[in-house]
Write a structure and sequence with these properties.
mainly alpha, two-stranded antiparallel sheet, 2 strands, 74% helix, 2% strand
Length: 260
């Protein structure tokens, strides 16, 4: 089979199955949608073996390497957030400790990939190129989102100080790993490489933030301009005496009720 056709069938079609499955899961076929998205993720993770000659399979290799710790962190933050004073979906208070433990294990797992022998490698001593992008971007994004979540819990939530403190701790831990990455070399990734890709991650996130803000501003401006240029409502003539009498008769009839 041709290499491009093989990559199309065994990588890009599974990639398209994930958003399509998520869309189906939000409509009338949630079970089929979840199965479709799950199958797509599995095929993407298997792409280093199904399409080893395709450069795109490095993305599947990285996904298979980081999906475990990332799921631990996501589930841990979920347990932390919903084990407090929430109006719906409240979890037992004991789940907060489990969530904190899962989050800690997830971060330790990812840190071991950078400073130990767990670094994702396509071949021996060749680091997956996507790891350079993922690791600094993940730490920067997690630190920002966790701190914003902690502030939001304090400002909007009621009796959410314990969960807010844990989210501040997650943010501080992510930022600490970020500082360590800037100064401490790993076995395969140097601090210089980390620093270079961190600045690229800052530029990417800043561009996304500015672009999102501009798109919202332009959208609001278009709606405001359109509504301002709409013609005013047409005035209608006041009702006549006969129309008022007819309305009064109808109202009196319906308010009076049925006589037994």
């Amino acid at each position: 089979m041709d290499e491009m056709l093989q990559a199309f069938l065994l990588f890009w079609i599974p990639v398209s199955m994930v958003p399509l499955g998520l869309w189906y899961s939000l409509t009338s076929s949630p079970l089929r949608g979840r199965f479709l998205a799950f199958t797509g993720i599995v095929l993407i993770c298997l792409s280093p073996w199904t399409v080893p000659s395709s450069p795109s399979s490095a993305a599947g290799h990285l996904l298979g390497a980081v999906i475990g710790p990332c799921m631990l962190i996501v589930l841990g933050i979920y347990l932390i957030s919903f084990s407090g004073n929430v109006p719906v979906g409240k979890l037992p208070r004991s789940d907060r400790k489990i969530g904190f433990l899962m989050t800690t294990v997830g971060f330790a797992w990812l840190a071991g990939m950078h400073w130990w022998i767990l670094t994702p490698q396509i071949v021996q001593n060749e680091v997956n190129a996507y790891w350079y992008v993922f690791w600094p971007t993940f730490l920067l994004l997690t630190s920002c989102l966790a701190s914003c979540s902690a502030v939001t819990l304090l400002m909007i939530g009621e009796r959410r100080k314990a969960e807010s403190n844990i989210m501040f701790l997650v943010s501080a831990f992510s930022f600490t790993l970020l500082l360590l990455g800037l100064n401490v070399d790993g076995p395969l990734v140097t601090s210089g490489d980390f620093r270079q890709h961190l600045w690229l991650a800052v530029a990417d996130m800043s561009g996304i933030a500015v672009g999102s803000a501009l798109s919202i501003l332009v959208f609001a401006l278009v709606i405001y301009t359109y509504e301002r240029n709409l013609p005013g409502p047409e005035s209608i003539t006041p009702p006549t005496d006969s129309e008022l009498k007819q309305v009064s008769t109808l109202i009196a009839t319906h308010l009076g009720g049925e006589e037994e």
